[in-house]
């Protein structure tokens, strides 16, 4: 068993102070009710117990003799609890000598207890990280250090990673210039030069830990990338690929693949194998691509598989069910609970019958169409069949392929109004981008060589948006809030502006810039207008996601396009072939059906999809 006192001979010698030092048996020590530490005594007790077992009591307990021959612990209660745990576990004797500093009975015990708990300065975490690194460098193993300090091996590994960060970064942490979460982000790269570069450019690159990780791993591929999930990290490593793991992130989010070329090779090889299997289906052509974006999809017309006729028995049952459904549905009055349940049961059974019939592509479609296999965001293979290239479109009687425009000019204008409102709403909450946008517009007017069409009407004439949308509603709320704050009259507004701080003026500038955004595509606008290109750049700077600002509904979209477009939208959004029952629905009903099917998928009509 460990002898606590012999591990700490210095604690047994007199220090020349007024307080006597002695080795007192553990069994004679008792807690003192007046200890000022009332909470947190059990916190970290396992680590302290392991430390005492490994290193002994490094700091003497402070005690005062009682009238019953015991010694009450004035300071050192947690050390006493750790020693008691060791005695109960058989690691030390119950009477093991404990180094103690004995205070006189006349001393203010409360003041002594408070002094030890308050005056003692805690060790800075950065010093602790470097100390753990020094232990490992001296030859100790991670497992040994973990056991001696009573902590998990992964905790030791994390502190080692933090200790291996550049001393420049650690010093910035010591000075309070970085948070612990930011230092943790620096551990994703062991290149000190890169760490120094990112630290120097921290404000420009972004101070969030994710911004730091992104800047330090710009040449690596995160484990959450669709290619990494498709290939699997295990297969990549088996092929000889190097990885770096961030111990402060969970799962694949903390893994970075360092050989992008190898990952691409493995992903394309796996995709090609899937493409070869697709060729057996008889397509005119088959291609593979890591990513298939909306713009690429928009270059093709999509043909859907055609449901085959039901069997005679299934067709007869469907006919009977359809007749019953129409009879119940057309009955006068609101259906009761029993009728509603029967209608639901009929719908379910008719769907089962429909699903039982296979859907196949016609020989004509196979002759002109192809398929593309790609990787979806989850890392799963995604196959899009029935794609017809513009050059493969059948010719009309005059020998020309002239497909009818899918979107009317009025619909495009309506949709792009929603996009304009969404961009404006985001710009109103982002003064930094708004300032850059306003300066860009002004500089373009002053310096003609730098100028060009701009999506901001910098004269601050607010865009009049006729269409109601989430973005327009948010802009109106902001307008009401500013109207309540601003004084009436030009002179009063000028004095108000002079009295405001820069932050308030920037917020107002952002809102005014937001109301001047014009990304609406009217009938007379050319699709290649530079104003639209600038709006796309503005949206990119804002990390604008139109799916958060617009949801296609029967009212704002589906009722305004052709039946074929509605069916195509449902199939594209749900990745399911068209259903025979859709052909029997009237267009208003089909539009409502599409609204339900597309909800939650993030699908957007082509005019609202991000620019390539």
Shape: extended
Gap between N and C termini: 72 Å
Q: What does the average pLDDT come to?
A: 77
Number of helix segments?
26
Q: Please tally the β strands and state the result.
A: 14
Binned, the helix content reads 40-55%
Structural class label: alpha+beta
- Rounded radius of gyration (Å): 36 Å
Arrangement of strands in the largest sheet: 1-5-3-4-2
Q: Uncertain spans, ≥5 residues at pLDDT below 50?
A: 5-18, 445-451
* Largest sheet features: 5 strands, mixed
Quote the beta fraction: 5-15%
Task: Describe the protein's architecture and organization.
Among the domains are: 110 residues, Conserved hypothetical protein from pyrococcus furiosus pfu- 392566-001, ParB domain; 136 residues; 49 residues; 106 residues, no CATH class. The two termini are 72 Å apart. The protein has 612 residues and is of the alpha+beta class. The longest helix is centred in the middle third of the chain and has 20 residues. About 3% of the residues have low confidence. The strands form 4 sheets. It has a 5-stranded mixed beta sheet with strand order 1-5-3-4-2. It has a 4-stranded mixed beta sheet with strand order 9-13-14-10. The protein contains 26 helices and 14 strands.
Summarize the structure.
This protein is of the alpha+beta class and 612 residues long.
